[in-house]
Every structure is written in structure tokens, then in C-alpha cells.
Design a protein that fits this description.
The chain contains 15 helices and 9 strands. By secondary structure, the protein is an alpha/beta fold. The protein has 3 domains: 124 residues, no CATH class; 41 residues, no CATH class; 174 residues, Rossmann fold. Helix 5 packs across helix 7.
């Protein structure tokens, strides 16, 4: 809590330096409000300070400018607040706490503390989901909520005006020339439009994926929230049958989304029939346009009890429909293919094989998406 108070006090001091009337009582009110709210949420951070620190209407513009410069600038104290919130977890502290180098030292300096917290965050990102405690999974959930996705894009046949390009816009050039008494002052150009490709997540929720399925569902929820209305993210879960989860995940809170998803899935932590699930997706949704030209991400360990021939046939049909197939396997660490029958069968149809056992690998997947266009 001391780190949180320090960050908020620095922000209040910046406001005071710009002429905003902020007293010590206002700072205490701000700290008390953020103790009840989530300091890692920009909306809570903004409105908490707006209500507690701004008393005059003419100071709102100054507050908005300093808030953006302070919390969204190069130093980005939001990351510091996230690390402070993670260290506040009682169970996580026992795992992430680093003892002081000198036993006689009462309190390390600020740079040392921030360095240790940043190291803890990186350590937590690299920890396998199967080894995380409930408190650490909650901390990872807050980090996932801040993941920003850039979807892969495809070029369409339509074009749009552009400042430069390869194709001249004759109509716009002539109209420009007519305004200049027939003189061609400059050329106008057009460029091909781009549209985001849909993203489809097929999540294995069988018994062998029990240690990872909750984190993968949280990632799917965060991906859907990050997409908003900019591009489509469709989510399916499969074990022995396929379940459509996209409507269930369209809620404001992740806990409610996971509860609704758990209520829809009837084969949670059961067997696995990957081929049957992919075949049903292709026949029921993929051929109707959901997978056409999109990127399909299969999250599974490849421990399949179904027919390998059906898996090969369904993946072949899916590869003809979609643009790319990405397979995340928690046992595919270091880029090597796990020695399972399903992974051997799927290898010819998979474009990218990644691990999905920790947050770092999921961040790698999010960073790879733009290159798959």
C-alpha cells in the first residue's frame, strides 16, 4: 500500500505544481478511494482522481493533460501500480518476495524495490500455469486484461484515397486540376483497403488440459474484450463435443464470463476427440464463413482419443478454408513437436506451433498475430 500512496502522492504533487488546488486531505481521499477500487484500471484511476482532486471546473483541462502525461507517458506508472497490486496478494508474496541483500538493512531504496517488483512480474509471466497458485493466477488474470491485440489484416479489392501509393486516382486528379484552371498541380493516389481477419480460438478443456484451460479461457475473454468492435474473435471449447462460447464471454466481468462458460460446457475435464470437434466446427460454422480467410488457433496438448484419420481430414478442410492455423501446445516448449499421434497427424496442416503453458507464450502469440496477415 505504501507504494500505491507514493505514486498517487507524486501525481498530486504534479497537479499542485501546475496550479491545481490539491490539499493533503484531497490526497488522502484519493488514496482511500483507490484502496477500494482497482488502481490498475485506468478508468478507476482517472475518475477517482477527478472526483477527489479536482474542485474547480477550470482545472479539468489541466487534470486531463497531466493524467495523460503522468500515467500514459514514457515512465508509465500504471505498470508500477500493477506490480504493487500483484505484490499485495498474500499468497503471492510468499513466492515472489525477495529478501534484502544486507540483513541489517531496514528498508531498500526505491530503485531496488521497483527493480525487484519488475523482476517478480517477469518471473510470474514465465511460470507455467500448472505451477501457479490461485493468487498467482488472479495476478496473471489482471495482466491478461491489459493485453492489446493487433489483428492480422488482409488487402481487399476496394481502394481508398491516400497521400502516396502505386495507383493514381484519375478522377480526383482531374477534379483537382479543374480547380486550378486545368493545371495538374499534384497527382492523387489510391491504396488498397485492408480489413482485419477474424480470429477463432478452439480451446481444449479436457482432463489433460485442466491445469491450463482456466488461463486459456481468461486469455480468450481478454482477447474478445480487446477486440471490441474492431474485429471478430470467436471462441469454442471442446472435449468430447464442441461448445460455442462467444456469447457467454460477452460480459463485463471475467468471473461472470467464466461462470457462464462453465455452465454451457457439459464435458469439462473429460475425454478428448479433436478430430470430431474440428470436423463439427468446419461443417457447422467454418463453411458458413466464420473461418473463411481467418486465423484459427487450436489450444490443445494433442492427447486425442479420437480417429486420427478424421483429424487429418478435418484439418485438411479447415486449412483450405482459413488463412492460417496456429497450434498452441503446453508441451511444445522450445519449438519442438510433442510426440503424440494427433500432433504428428496435424503437423502438415499447422503453420505455426507455439507453447501455451505460460503468459509469456500467450504474449508471443498476441505479438505474432499481425505477421500472420
Amino acid at each position: 500500500m505504501a507504494g500505491l500512496v507514493d505514486v498517487l502522492a507524486r501525481f498530486a504533487a504534479a497537479l499542485r505544481a501546475e496550479g491545481v488546488a490539491v490539499g493533503s486531505g484531497d490526497v488522502l481521499t484519493y488514496c482511500a478511494a483507490m484502496a477500494a477500487l482497482d488502481p490498475t484500471e485506468l478508468a478507476d484511476l482517472y475518475w477517482g482522481g477527478r472526483i477527489a482532486l479536482v474542485t474547480r471546473h477550470e482545472d479539468v483541462e489541466t487534470y486531463d493533460r497531466l493524467f495523460g502525461a503522468f500515467f500514459l507517458g514514457e515512465t508509465n506508472p500504471v505498470d508500477e501500480l500493477l506490480e504493487i497490486a500483484m505484490r499485495a496478494e498474500p499468497d503471492a508474496e510468499t513466492v515472489l518476495e525477495v529478501p534484502a541483500a544486507d540483513p541489517g538493512e531496514e528498508e531498500p531504496d526505491e530503485e531496488t524495490v521497483l527493480g525487484l517488483m519488475a523482476s517478480d512480474v517477469e518471473t510470474l509471466k514465465a511460470r507455467s500455469f500448472a505451477e501457479c497458485t490461485d493468487a498467482e493466477l488472479d495476478a496473471l488474470r489482471r495482466i491478461m486484461a491489459r493485453i492489446r491485440l493487433t489483428p492480422p489484416r488482409r488487402r481487399t479489392r476496394r481502394s481508398r484515397p491516400a497521400r502516396r501509393g502505386r495507383r493514381p486516382d484519375l478522377r480526383a486528379t482531374v477534379r483537382r486540376a479543374l480547380r486550378a484552371q486545368g493545371e495538374v498541380v499534384d497527382l492523387r493516389w489510391r491504396r488498397r483497403r485492408t480489413r482485419p481477419r477474424p480470429l477463432v480460438l478452439l480451446l481444449d478443456i479436457s482432463g489433460s488440459m485442466a491445469d491450463y484451460s482456466r488461463a486459456l479461457l481468461q486469455f480468450a475473454y481478454s482477447a474478445q474484450r480487446a477486440a471490441g468492435s474492431r474485429f471478430r474473435v470467436e471462441v469454442f471449447a471442446f472435449g468430447t463435443r464442441l461448445t460455442y462460447l462467444t456469447p457467454a464471454l460477452r460480459t463485463r466481468t471475467p468471473d461472470e464470463a467464466l461462470a457462464r462458460a462453465a455452465g454451457l460446457v457439459l464435458d469439462w475435464e473429460g475425454g478428448t476427440r479433436i478430430g470430431a470437434a474440428v470436423d463439427e466446427f468446419v461443417r457447422r460454422w467454418g463453411r458458413r464463413g466464420m473461418a473463411r480467410g481467418g486465423v484459427v488457433v487450436v489450444c490443445s496438448d494433442g492427447l486425442d482419443r479420437g480417429d486420427p484419420e478424421l483429424l487429418a481430414t478435418s484439418l485438411e478442410r479447415l486449412a483450405r478454408l482459413c488463412h492460417r492455423i496456429v497450434w498452441t501446445n503446453p508441451h511444445a516448449r522450445g519449438g519442438r513437436r510433442p510426440p503424440t499421434v494427433a500432433m504428428i497427424v496435424a503437423e502438415p496442416y499447422v503453420d505455426v506451433l507455439l507453447s501455451g503453458h505460460d503468459l509469456s507464450s500467450l504474449e508471443e502469440l498476441a505479438g505474432l498475430l499481425p505477421a500472420l496477415g
